[in-house]
Amino acid sequence: MNPVPAIDPAQAAGQRLRERMFRGATFAAALLVLLLLGGVAFSLAVGSWPAFAHFKFAFLTREIWNPVTDEYGALAPIFGTLVTSFLALLLAIPVSLGIAIFLTELAPVWLKRPVGIAIELLAAVPSIIFGIWGLFVLAPILQRHVQPWLIDALGPLPFVGKLFQGPPYGIGILTAGLVLAIMVIPFVSAVMRDVFETVPDVLKESGYGLGATTWEVIWQVVVPYSRTGMIGGIMLGLGRALGETMAVTFVIGNAHRISSSLLAPGTTISASIANEFAEAVGDLYTSSLIALGALLFLITFTVIAAARFMLLRLDRRALSSV
Amino acid sequence: MNVLSAKRMLLTAVGAVAFAGSAHAIDISGAGATFPYPVYSKWADAYKQQTGVGLNYQSIGSGGGIKQIKAKTVTFGASDMPLEAKDLQQAGLVQFPMIIGGVVPVVNVKGVSGGQMVLDGATVAAIYLGEITKWNDSRIRKANPKLALPATAIAPVYRSDGSGTNFLFSNYLSSAYPKFLSTIGANTSVQWPVGIGAKGNEGVANMTAQTDGAIGYVEYAYAKQNKMAYVDLVNAAGNAVAPNAESFQAAAANADWAHAPGYHLILTNQPGAKSWPITGASFILLYSTPPDPAATATALKFFDWAYKNGGKMAADLDYVPLPDSLIKLVRATWKAEIK
Question: Strand B214-219 relative to strand B155-159: parallel, antiparallel, unpaired?
Fold first, then answer.
């Protein structure tokens, strides 16, 4: 047996130093994130202070947005942001779920890779492309073929009808929701697929062994097992939908109004900022736009916090049921 | 969270940007309006070939241009919306017009092509207020007895991004229709009560082109190059005029520049039989006591050169050069006010 050679003390000291430096470097990198986040929050708070101090709580509850009289309220952009994101998820979740289930459970092997790669490529398309496509291709189709039908068929109905009234402009809340859904689907479906793939084969095979159908295995084994990851994927999509700027600006109609109809133009927080910041003259105007940014920051933060909280509770329930 | 170190980081970042900027010290630096950007960059190209001095112009918008010159990060600012004389005085700035352009209403109505329809300012304002909702409204029919106008709903399209175009258009509607002034007013962004907002000239043009019954407004060069169905307007003298270089120049020439302190003059609804009613100048802002006199002198040399040699290049891009009488006034201002 060979004796272990003694470690040279100088070399050991060098190694310790390198260890310490590496630890310091990674710590600094981690700290930088906190500093940046804090810096963003701080500058948003300082920048938005004049608007909040001037309008008080009414900033959140008023629909008015009038640069001429210098009166601003954030209700219309908040409404637009939440409604378009909600629509996007409403459309994206079932489709993404379908894509993920098909790819992991049902697709023939030769089809899995091409479809998977196509989804990843779709996720890499810059948002401006979706905006231009939405404006030049999707909006005319909606305007000529889809919206007139919606207005005629659904408009006269009680309750639901209110959502589908007014002239068919082609662009508006609905179009923005559609474009957002298309942008969100690759993210949500890619995460869901990855999560479904982590379901142990043993579990699925036990299901089949007990005589379960594919449908039963998917809904009673695969989906419950991956609940946490699915919610994570949905939240990732929601985060993207809430903050998306360029594509939405192109197709939402950019009107600071709240309308009961999904076909009417509206605006979102990020679209308002992108539209108006460059030409905003006057402290109150600029500050109101920054205040919109602060609100978006708050909304996104709340969504992520809520998602974390939900995941935590799910984890705990899963643990206690074991 | 350590606020102080966040601030220090910010300072470092700003320092880095300033350092990067100093590498182009020989170039003239300016920022502001997007509307004159194409002609400024064309002038800059020609000027650089002749003199070797380049222009670094950031077309970030008029509001941004005003902010940047006030922060002294650029040698000149450019704005489509002139500052008031008292604001100029307060900030120690000198303002003068550089180039003229016009805004043109365009429509998408079946059977109506460019130059066939005539509207007056009050009618256009009523459309944008939602008072006139159909193309066969009696007010539109009265001005266009020869046109067969359909009962199509009017879809007003406006610029959603803050812009000098918005300012000129809303200023014109305000001066032509008192109710527009009292309910909406004039600004680079206003709260339109009806219609849809599209981004940029190209957005408005496209939205108008693809929506049956739409009316929009774009910069003249855009309407001309895309052969859009423009509308003739009734001017202050009561004549129907077509948008073209002559009618823009007529508006600029008839304006009373000599009695406008700080050249604060908006060329909408100017007198004169041939004046196009939605004309506007784009302005340059300089410090009267510049922080860097050498840089300002270089910039002035460029502007002087552009007045002298830039007319044809501007006309090629469908902009309108200033009338000679006005150039003379501006040169006198330079001499008197910039140290």
Answer: parallel
- Chain B CB contacts of A278 below 8 Å: 60-61, 63-64, 161-162
Give strand ranges (E) for B83-172.
93-108, 118-119, 155-159
Cβ pair B124, B148 in contact under 8 A: no
List all residues of chain A from 15 to 54 with a beta carbon under 8 Å from chain B: 34-35, 38-39, 41-43
Chain B: nearest CA to A148, how far in angstroms? Answer: 13
For residues B270 and B280, what is the distance between their CA atoms, to the nearest angstrom? 10
* Total-model pTM: 0.78
Q: Which of residues 190-249 of A touch B (CB under 8 A)?
A: 249
Interface contact flag, B191 A135, Cβ < 8 Å: no
Q: CATH second-level architecture of B3-100+256-266+280-337?
A: 3-Layer(aba) Sandwich (3.40)
Specify the CATH number for B103-252; select among 3.40.50.620, 3.30.1330.20, 3.40.50.300, 3.40.190.10: 3.40.190.10
- pLDDT, tens digit, 9 for 90 and up, residues B60-114: 878 788 888 998 999 999 988 888 889 899 989 999 999 998 899 999 998 888 8
Query: Which chain B residues have a beta carbon less than 8 Å from that of A265?
Result: 195-197
Counting Cα atoms < 13 Å in the Cβ hemisphere of A28 gives: 6
Percent of chain B residues topping a pLDDT of 90: 42
Tens digits of per-residue pLDDT, A276-288?
A: 887 777 789 999 9
